[in-house]
User: Fold FAM192A/Fyv6 N-terminal domain-containing protein from Candida verbasci.
Amino acid sequence: MQNEERKSLRQQIAEGKALKLQEYQEKFESKNTTYILDEKAVKFYNELKEKEQKNDKEIKQLMNKEMRRYQSMKESKDVKQRVVKKSIQVKKKQKITNKPEQSQTKSASKSVPSVVGDYSSDEDV
Assistant:
């Protein structure tokens, strides 16, 4: 019977390790109990999270609204620029079509006085 009650060194070491592991786990659990949240704390943190998500959503909506406003302003500016370019092109076309008539009348009126002026100056001499 003495051999049966006596434990081998291997068994003693295994029991010692198991006992130390159990003590460590109990100690570790007692340290982490402060981090366990009660229902009130969980509710509080959930409310904070919801508020943060709501604020993020509002900011995102505001950013989208401003982006659409900017894009519409940019498009209207592009339209205005196109209209201005078209009107400039139309004015240039009108000037081109009106130029030959004006240039012929101006050149004819200039040449007549110079000839008349030259002719009159010959008579005086």
